[in-house]
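QA checklist item 7 of 12: single-chain prediction sanity check.
[x] sequence parsed
[x] length recorded as 275
[x] structure emitted
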Amino acid sequence: MANNGSRKSDRKEAANPVGFAQAIANTAYNAYEKRLLQEVKKLPIPKHVAVIMDGNRRYAREMELLSEDGHIRGKDKLEEVLDWCLLLDIKVLTVYAFSTENLRRNREEVDSLMKMFEENFRKVGDDERVHKHGIRIRAIGQIDTLPESVQKAIGYAEERTRQYTSYTYNIAVAYGGRQELVTAIRKIADDVSSGSARLEDINEALVSRYLYTDGLPDPDLVLRTSGEERISNFLLWQAAYSELYFSDVYWPTFSFVDFLRAIRSYQLRQRRYGT
């Protein structure tokens, strides 16, 4: 005789086929994520991953949200990505948070972003994860162009984590790759003029020491979300030999599986320098 509880379960599943199908899909997805993670861990992990976090505003429009809500979702996603990098032991993460060109957006959106930066630099300075794992926080870009309140919040996060060496988390704010190179050239010219550097000593290694990322390895992998396939003035010098990966999902919907696929793609490539 059939079990009464089993018949009830069968009737419930028949009454809600969409929910049952979704449960099966979730189980399959979780199994795929677990298998992909195991595969990724078997091969060398990139030391430095750089991310162009693109698609917050388009996500917000499609979801009929305010632009501010899209940026908040993007900030929450960045919290997740930091956890993923810790899980995979990726030593350096550099994220493109705000470009010099973004300063030309409407004042209301820029002000909202500045408030978010101020809040979150102070938050990351107090983050237990950061102190537990020894993560150094660095802001790179034309920091002196930002509001004083944001500069102070950046200083707070940097000072609280200055002694850490296990991981580095770079946040590119008011950043432009061409401007970074112009700034480096000016500093080199000043040092040559003052005699603290010689013209014949200028080489790739010396130029790298004048960049915001001095002391860090160049990114092994640069990934961008939203389907756009360009680097948008991001780490122009440092990304000369980086592997590039473009994901067609908006940043707020970027999943752990999407991240693992990017790492897996990097691992399966044969890196070449110069050709």
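[x] summary fact logged: The beta strands are 48-52, 92-99, 135-140, 167-175, 221-224, 243-246.
[ ] second reviewer sign-off
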